[in-house]
Write a structure and sequence with these properties.
The complex is a heterodimer. Chain A is mainly α. Chain A is built from 17 helices and no strands.
């Protein structure tokens, strides 16, 4: 039974980790710099593991999710700024994910894009309304596993494994230093997107984790996000082995799917499209819930997927409003891939205000008792906080100087 | 801090918005790379259609998407003002984007024809000078 619970957590983590931002940034990074930026994926995955483990532990011991901690530890004004920043980025990400779902449906069906946006919004609303947490995890988590086709594609493309291994060591072999660092910041931002911890910690509270689930939380974080990182590796290797030598910049989800078709044929293409559809669909649900959780936790409303709509009316209204706002954004015809690039970069700016309260609460004995951070968690948490502050200060200048990664 | 953040965000949008202004040598080089990239992806897609079973719907939609991108480059580079001495090169690049868009248009119109795809593949390669 424990193994089954871990499996569900792992599947949920894969669905939450590999969203449209990771798909775009990893493929584009591979197509631009080959395997040079693989080390950034490692850094990002360790970072999200460290902080997810921390906020899962906080959820299990104190029954508090991230925005409870934000409200209690940084004060109302700073908390409100964090909330606004988080919600703006969340909404941009949600709109991008919904657009990504519609693009995948279009690539599979050929139907008009705007109709598919409406279908995607309606389907997401129905899924969130009628489907249990477990089934959402199963449908989108198992579906997300289809993305493993990119790992097979990466192997089939026969990359130079020596070069791949060299990519795990930080190094710079390009004249375009600014673009290199722009991608590094984007990859870190995509790996440590704040909505992942909002959703993860709230999910822990929803599932009523207790101190008995500390091990389960750790396994979910390490294995789940580890697998997500593995998929990121695969996407970057496909970009480096297939697109870079041919001078192709994969800027659409169709191009990314083509990366599985070339080495694996029609089966590879179908698996890639289904995997992208369900991973991006899962990320839509994660961001939708994360937005509603944030509002409810910050303002002290009743919240929770396990409550009926009448039991948590403002929480329910919250996700419905977010869904309508996302529809309003994506129906304008904005390119979801470009939107996700902006969302990832702007999310980097909000990272410190999200992660600092987690670190503070994880060290507070009043909340955590004997489950406060150990030395390793504090060292890693501190180092990552410095990294997060540095990239949050450099993200927007780099975006401007590189013309949003166009060089 | 809030004002500084707002200023940065505004600068970002201004910088991004400036992309639609005058075409200088740097912008031309970048657009040229992007246009070649489209052609090379067209060659890859055409190769798949010509040589393996490929989902017709995917091929049609994806070729249509790439057509739109190439056509957008054609429109932009045909009309945008340029810095002195590079206008002719910019307009030539617009024509090239138009030729690539036309190839995608043909591919999207009949994505289930391996024969047509085989005919289009070398044309994409030539336009994009692909390896």
């Amino acid at each position: 039974m424990k193994i089954f619970q871990v499996a569900l957590g792992i599947l949920a983590a894969i669905g939450g980790f590999v969203d449209i931002g990771d798909l775009v940034f990893n493929s584009a990074a591979g197509a631009t710099f080959g395997y040079q930026l693989l080390w950034v994926v490692v850094i990002g995955v360790i970072g999200i593991i460290v902080y997810s483990e921390m906020c899962g532990r906080i959820a299990a011991i104190s029954k508090k999710a991230v925005f409870d901690a934000v409200r209690e530890r940084v004060g109302f004004t700073a908390g409100l700024i964090t909330l606004i920043a988080a919600q703006v980025v969340n909404l941009m990400t949600l709109a991008a994910e919904v657009g990504g779902v519609a693009i995948c449906l279009r690539l599979l069906s050929g139907l008009p894009y705007r109709w598919l946006i409406l279908l995607a919004i309606f389907a997401l609303g129905v899924v969130v309304w009628v489907t249990s947490f477990e089934w959402i995890e199963r449908i989108f988590g198992y579906g997300g596993l289809c993305l493993l086709v990119f790992a097979v594609a990466a192997i089939k493309l026969e990359p130079d494994w020596g070069d791949v291994a060299h990519g795990l060591v930080p190094h710079l072999e390009t004249k375009d230093t600014l673009l290199y660092f722009y991608f590094a910041v984007g990859l870190l931002g995509a790996a440590m997107t704040p909505y992942e911890v909002y959703f993860y910690s709230s999910g822990g509270v929803e599932e009523e984790w207790t101190e008995k689930d500390i091990g389960l939380n750790r396994a979910n974080a390490i294995i789940g996000y580890g697998l997500g990182g593995f998929l990121s590796f695969a996407l970057m290797i496909v970009g480096g082995a297939l697109f870079l030598p041919q001078g192709i910049e994969p800027e659409t989800l169709g191009s990314i799917a083509l990366g599985a078709q070339i080495p694996l044929g029609e089966t590879g293409l179908v698996l890639a499209l289904v995997g992208i559809l369900l991973a991006v669909g899962g990320a839509s649900i994660d961001t939708l819930f994360a937005g509603a959780y944030n509002f409810a936790q910050f303002f002290g409303w009743e919240w929770g997927r396990y409550r009926s709509a009448a039991g948590a009316p403002r929480f329910t209204l919250g996700w419905m409003v977010l869904l309508v706002l996302a529809l309003g954004i994506v129906i304008t015809g904005v390119d979801p891939v470009q939107l996700t690039e902006y969302a990832v970069i702007f999310s980097v700016v909000a990272l410190p205000l999200t992660y600092l309260p987690i670190l503070l609460v994880a060290n507070d004995r009043a909340y955590m008792g004997s489950y406060v951070n150990g030395r390793l968690a504090n060292v890693l948490g501190g180092v990552y906080l410095v990294v997060i502050v540095v990239i949050s200060l450099t993200a927007i200048p780099l975006m401007i100087l590189t013309n949003v990664g166009q060089g | 801090v809030r004002r500084a953040t707002l200023l940065l965000v505004l600068l970002a949008f201004v910088a991004v918005g400036c992309n639609g202004g005058t075409v200088d040598q740097h912008a031309l080089d970048k657009d040229s790379e992007a246009i070649d990239s489209l052609a090379c992806e067209g060659a890859l897609l055409a190769h798949e259609i010509a040589n393996t079973a490929s989902l017709t719907t995917f091929s049609r939609v994806h070729a249509g998407e790439l057509y739109t991108r190439a056509a957008n480059f054609q429109d932009a580079l045909s009309t945008r003002p340029t810095t002195p001495r590079i206008e002719q090169a910019v307009r030539e690049e617009a024509k090239k984007a138009g030729r690539i868009a036309a190839l995608f248009d043909q591919l999207a119109a009949d994505p289930s024809s391996p024969r047509l795809a085989a005919k289009l593949e070398p044309r994409f390669v030539k336009q994009g000078e692909c390896e």
